[in-house]
Amino acid sequence: MSNNEGYKQVKRMTPAMRIIHWVNVLSMIVAVITGLYIAEPYYQTLIAEGAVDKYVMAWNRWGHFMVAIIFDVTSIIVAYLYFFSRFEKSYKKVLPTGANIKEFFEVLLNLVTLNRRKKFDSTHSDSFNTVYFTIFHLLLAWMLLTGLQLYVHGLGSGESSIGAWWPWMLHLVTDWTVPASHAILGGAKATIMDVRIVHHYTMWFILTWVVFHIYYQVWRTIFWKEGDIAIVVGGSKFVKESN
Amino acid sequence: MSKNKEESVKKLFTAQSASVDTNLGDSYYTELYAKCQKRLDELKQLKPLNNRMDFLESIEEEGLDRRDFLKWASATTAMLMLPAAFTPLVAEAAVLMNRVPVIWMELQDCAGNSEALLRSDGPQIDEIILDIISLEFHETLQAASGHQAEKQMDEAMEHFHGKYLLFVEGAVPLGMDGQYGTIGAKAETFVDHLKRGAEGAAAVVAVGSCATYGGIPAAAPNPTDAVGVMDIVKGKPLINIPACPANPSNMVGVILHFVLTGSIPELDSLLRPKFAFGYRIHDNCERRAHFDAGEYVEEWGDEGAKNNFCLYKMGCKGPMTFNNCSIVRYNEGVNWPIGVGRGCIGCSEPDFWDKYAYERPMANANIKAPTGGVEKSVDEFGLGLLTAAGIGIGIHAAASYVAGKKEERGES
């Protein structure tokens, strides 16, 4: 392909990062489909069958909690890579240094001027993208903590199939989300319903995040002409040599 | 509430939600047993206050025999999460209930909790016990009124200073210096009334959701600035028995526990006794199988309702509500909300009227206009839009002015 002259290939995502990305995508789709059912069962079961033969809500909850646990694990890995990755330590891009702040606004200007201004290096993950990525993982962490708080109330006996330490630990780690959710919503006293409402709201924030995320990645691909959309599949993109 | 930042941060990270430890170990119970015995012996030395009725005679008059009483005693022992060996002590404590003075105070409420324990069809043992407790003062029940009533309360508080249990029913309005609720000939505000009563109490028991969290008076927009007893009374043992109305079984449980041990039962983070509020309704619900199966009542009276399907889609809040009513039920185990075919409204949880009782699943709750009220939304929206338009016009005018200048100078 002679057209490739003048373009160099830059590696942007390691195989581990790409696997985590797609695991998260699938988990999120399942979490939203089952979560909406748990919030308000939007399809009905066949009424003629006995309750003993169906397990519809239970399967939805099973799926929801399973992907939540997968999310937990990928989040822990992401949190680790955020600081210790040998490929790219994301935290370096969110530190409020002059260079980062300048890059952040340059990328933002690039977006709002519809690519009429592009004064930054697009060969690496930029500050804007990393901040956006960080927001997602903070929302996700909040989702996981509130979710586990709601979950642990189903273990009211203080026991679980893997021992009493598990509900004990969940209480220890997530009980603070009750007053925190109350601080967000207000009202007379903190209550478990505050957590549920906030958990539900956060889903919409994350979905909004996803909408912009997909739009922006496609937009970059179209306007920058650097093949950004391929990063998440093949791990690399192409940048003009002269850049 | 004036709370400094440090305190609220500390509170945030030490918060605990409900978790119940039902078995505290043999040595604990052996010690407790000895303590209870000693306490009951002490109480036996005391004379019943004010010539109260004898308990065992009272239950006979109501047509119950000793066997019923003992059955009740073992059920109550279990409810209080005590080992079966405590049953004779519980029975003895019930007989000695008339030795503990109780003052009952009524604030901003509907008297529903008093009604709950008075209006039962045939009085059961729980209600009889509440009949014979040494109720020294109860605004709704007593014959006295006006100055006489106030005198009675003053005397009771003085005579039993440091010994009486103060039961409070109803929220405390704080708005307009508390003048939304006053009582007595001197127009004492509810908040002063409560503070005065709590001062000499051995322990304070908030009965019902209004006394506990402010309840319905505190529901949005809370016009009277109503709060619960625990926001007012500090530095006293305080027990909350929420629910609307509070279950007489739980009231008796708390008094019994106090009579028996001289101390208040183990409480959760909302100061509710764990023996009553350590259970999630959902986990003991008879319709739980239908929840897991995905079988829901879709509308009142449909095929699902006829088949006792789960009421989740009708807004049942059992999965988020902690109370023992799915176990002990109401009116001596006759029935409870889910049993009569309507959902739980979460009446034992904080802010239940705003956050639980909207009778549809949470995802569909839209009792309030999404932004806080129709007029309020329209006004704020209008003001916001006008401001935005003003700013836009300002920017446009400034930009036009700059552009005009540039043009004058011959720049593009």
Helical content class of chain A? 55-70%
Question: Can you name the CATH architecture of chain A?
Answer: Up-down Bundle
- Indicate the overall shape of chain B: globular
Shape of chain A: elongated
Q: The CATH topology of chain A is what?
A: Fumarate Reductase Cytochrome B subunit
Q: What topology, given as strand order, has the largest sheet of chain A?
A: 1-2
Largest sheet of chain B: 5 strands, parallel
Mean pLDDT of chain A: 89
Would you identify the CATH architecture of the largest domain in chain B?
3-Layer(aba) Sandwich
Average pLDDT level of chain B: 83
| Low-confidence runs of chain A | none
Radius of gyration of chain A, in angstroms, nearest whole number: 22 Å
| β-sheet strand percentage of chain A | under 5%
| SSE topology string of chain A | EHHHHHHHHE
Number of helices of chain A: 8
CATH class bucket of the largest domain in chain B: Alpha Beta
Question: Largest chain-chain contact?
Answer: A-B, 42 and 49 residues
How is the topology of this model organized?
The complex is a heterodimer of chains A (243) and B (412).
Chain A: E1 7-11, H1 15-39, H2 56-84, H3 98-112, H4 127-152, H5 165-174, H6 177-185, H7 192-224, H8 231-234, E2 236-240
Antiparallel strand pairs in A: 1-2
Helix pairs in contact in A: 1-2, 2-4, 3-4, 4-5, 4-7, 6-7
Chain B: H1 5-14, H2 26-45, H3 55-61, H4 66-79, H5 87-95, E1 101-106, H6 112-118, H7 125-132, E2 134-138, H8 146-159, E3 165-169, E4 172-173, E5 182-183, E6 188-189, H9 190-199, E7 203-207, H10 208-213, E8 226-227, E9 238-241, H11 248-261, H12 274-277, H13 288-293, H14 303-306, H15 325-328, H16 352-355, H17 374-408
Parallel strand pairs in B: 1-2, 1-3, 3-7, 7-9
Antiparallel strand pairs in B: 4-8, 5-6
Describe this structure in words.
- The complex is a heterodimer of chains A (243) and B (412).
- A two-stranded antiparallel ribbon of chain A has the order 1-2.
- Chain A has 8 helices and 2 strands.
- Chain A has one domain (8-43, 50-240): Fumarate Reductase Cytochrome B subunit, CATH 1.20.950.
- In chain A, helix 1 runs antiparallel to helix 2 (56-84), helix 2 (56-84) crosses helix 4 (127-152) and helix 4 (127-152) packs antiparallel against helix 7.
- Chain A is mainly alpha-helical.
- Helix content of chain B is 43%, strand content 8%.
- By secondary structure, chain B is of the alpha/beta class.
- Chain B has helices spanning 5-14, 26-45, 55-61, 66-79, 87-95, 112-118, 125-132, 146-159, 190-199, 208-213, 248-261, 274-277, 288-293, 303-306, 325-328, 352-355, 374-408, and strands at 101-106, 134-138, 165-169, 172-173, 182-183, 188-189, 203-207, 226-227, 238-241.
- In chain B, strand 5 (182-183) and strand 6 (188-189) form a beta hairpin.
- Chain B folds into 3 domains: 25-276, NADH:ubiquinone oxidoreductase-like, 20kDa subunit (Rossmann fold); 281-364, Irregular (Cytochrome-c3 Hydrogenase, Chain A, domain 2); 376-412.
- At the A-B interface, helix 2, helix 5, helix 6 and helix 7 of A face helix 1 and helix 13 of B.
